[in-house]
Design brief:
The complex is a heterodimer of chains A (500) and B (205). Chain A is α+β, with helices and mostly antiparallel strands. In chain A, the strands form four sheets. In chain A, strands 2-1-5-4-3 form a five-stranded antiparallel β-sheet. A five-stranded antiparallel β-sheet of chain A has the order 7-6-10-9-8. A five-stranded mixed β-sheet of chain A has the order 12-14-15-17-16. Chain A is rod-shaped. Helix content of chain A is 43%, strand content 23%. Chain B has a five-stranded parallel β-sheet, with helices on both faces. By secondary structure, chain B is of the alpha/beta class. Chain B is elongated and about 75 Å long. Classes of the chains: A alpha+beta (500), B alpha/beta (205). Chains A and B meet through helix 10, helix 11 and helix 12 of A and helix 1 of B.
Amino acid sequence: MTAPTPEVLALLEATLDAVVIMDDRGRIESFNTSAEVMFGYRAADAIGRNVNMLMPASERGQHDDLGHYLAGGEARALGRGRDVRVQHRDGSEFSVFLSVGRIPDASPPKSVGFFHDTSLRQKALATLDKERQVNRLYLDLAQVMLVATDRHGVVQLANQRAIRVLKRDHTTIVNSHWLDSCVAPEDRPVARVAFRNLLVSGNDEPQQFEYHVRSSDGDDRFVTWRGVALRDASNVATGVMLSGEDITDQRRAESEAHRALERMNSVARLATMGEMAAGISHELNQPLAAIANYAQACVRFLRMPAPDLPEISGALEQIASQALRAGEIIRRIRSLVRNEDVRRESQDINELIREVHGLLASDARVHDGKLALDLTVPLPSVTVDGVQIQQVLMNLVHNAFEAQGPEHDGAPFEVRIATRVTDAGDVEVSVSDLGPGLAGEAEQKIFEPFFTTKASGTGLGLAISRSIIKAHDARLGYRANQPRGACFYFVLPAHQGASP
Amino acid sequence: MKDLPQTVFVVDDDDAVRDSLRMLLKSAGVHAETSASAQEFLSRYDASQPGCLVLDVRMPGMSGLEMQHELNLRGVTMPVIFITGHGDIPMAVEAMQQGAFDFLQKPFRDQELLDRVQRALVRDAENRARLRHTDRIRERLASLSPREREVLDLVTQGKANKMVAGDLGVSQRTVEIHRAHVMQKMEAGSLAELVRMMMAVAPSP
């Protein structure tokens, strides 16, 4: 027997298959390292023994046992292979895929057997399969929509969640273009650009975009997609993994909440208006009554033989100015009830207070009270929505007059609006009264919606006032007034760089 | 006794409303005086001035209703016309219950106001005339002697001279003399007229 060349030796040692060379009677002549590992015999122990020792005992001696099969050198086995059961030295059985080759020009004839451990392969296959199933389970259990596409956007995979949201058959999603199956037509141009950017950006940060999805039954869903490009070893994009969150319900809840808040706001506004309607109608009636009186007096004067022209001319001037007064009142009421967007402008708080003074004074009159202004001049300007701040003031003043109760001791009930500059240079606005003030539970809950101490109150006025002030980055607060009564105040940040 | 000229007293805190009322009344030939508050009016009003009041229900300080109450306390019988705005109907009802003459919702037609003012002035004149009449009767009653007063009371109860004489323990002739003095002092032309006079001054039931 000639010694194997170094190349053959290297080959024998490198392969993971067990390689066994045997003579025509099945006697082992060579047993490589993989064979030692696979069967548990050292080569020295195996060489010279019959190859049948590698078979399970139960199968030895049978007609087509391994010995016959191998040693028989049966031509029919050449170039093919078959699964056979073999036995480890420790007695455990396992399957191998066996292929046999004849060594040419050997005398006596020799053959070589390659034992390929299929049980390992099967185990690996089983593991892989299991992993796939687990992955699939993960995908399907995920509460987000998962869609993987190739680099052209053709869907390779879609999880159960995606299928449910899209209300489509799995087969109509896979192999479709994701734009067609996952994005509503009107959003497709934008989505196409976003997809392309994802591929070319080279940036592996997930990109976020939000689109409509139109499901197969025409239901519009809002989905936030996060996309990340999948890249191969040379950083070439091979596809995209998209995860989508169905935020439709959240969106609807948000807009429902928003609408509810708006409704509440307008209800509160109407309620405030209702409470003040008596004062406003009185206020508006005054100029109207005066106009009617003057005009009717003019008619009577003009019918006289010698009309008193100076008296008539004075009355006509009065008519004009009273009509303007009525218009001004209406303008103010309109500005209170309109539902416009917030418009912040640089404003002088004192000016805003003076603007509503007329309406507030009429409220004071209704309550048989007095409204005092204690304004610090000059004040730094503040950036506010004037109408909203006026609404808050009207609410606070109205509450203050309502707080007096019926048993005031002769002296006019006074409500005071004061402005001052704080130590920090900001503008404090306060509305104080000499009523009973707040005690215990009322002080705790006064800002809570629907909490009211008034018999016919909605309990919304202060809550809304507070939210308006909060929207101005300020806080509506309460403190006891000296010597008695309640004081509501808020501090508005002064304009940056504005000097008093 | 000659009557003073009738005046419409307008009390309203709103300058324009007050002035326009004055002018409207003037255009109808009615003399008006204006006050900006109840206090101002009360401080300068003299109960002998005839006329009527036009009052705004809502005023700072003393409201129209409070002022009406004050007038009642002071025995001022001048008719009061209230002027109210929309939504003041409950107040107007209360005012009427307290004896207001009438009320008007503003804005109003001139004729509505002038008609009410005219009726109020007539009512005031009647009240004052009635008062003057009863004052005179009381003066005459005061001039009677005690015996004459006794005779008067008995004859106005419908008793004949003979019964009066019996009640008082005097002669029928003496009663006739007292009765003649009573008729003369009371300036009564008949027993019926005397009875009416006594009813006019009788305390209200």
